[in-house]
Design goal:
This is Lipoprotein. The chain has 102 residues and is mainly α. Helices cover 54% and strands 10% of the residues.
Length: 102
């Protein structure tokens, strides 16, 4: 039993096995790590605000993270993550695109 725990621990620490695979809602946990926070009130952006920006950006155009981030940024929201692993492990490209809106 100790050998199994040791081997499993080594796989997790080496990055060969994602620890979120063991949780029921792994994918949702990862996506909940990133959010848009208002500069003054420190509240998360309401879904309506995010949807309005999404609709504005995609109107007759393909989705662009740059334009979407700019829309939220202009309304006073900043990109935040609740876990450092989000940018360094899971969603590198998204963070790369949104870093200028922090």
């Amino acid at each position: 039993m100790k050998k199994i725990i040791l081997i499993l621990s080594l796989f997790i620490l080496s990055g060969c096995v994602d620890p979120f695979l063991f949780s029921y809602a792994g994918g949702n946990v990862i996506y909940d790590m990133a959010y848009w926070e208002h500069v003054d009130t420190k509240e998360k952006a309401p879904l309506k605000t995010e949807n309005d920006c999404f609709d504005k950006v995609t109107k007759n155009n393909p989705f662009s993270r740059d334009k979407y981030g700019q829309c939220l940024y202009e309304q006073g929201y900043r990109f935040r993550t609740s876990n450092l692993l989000y940018c360094f492990w899971y969603m590198k490209e998204e963070c790369k695109d949104y870093n200028k809106f922090r």
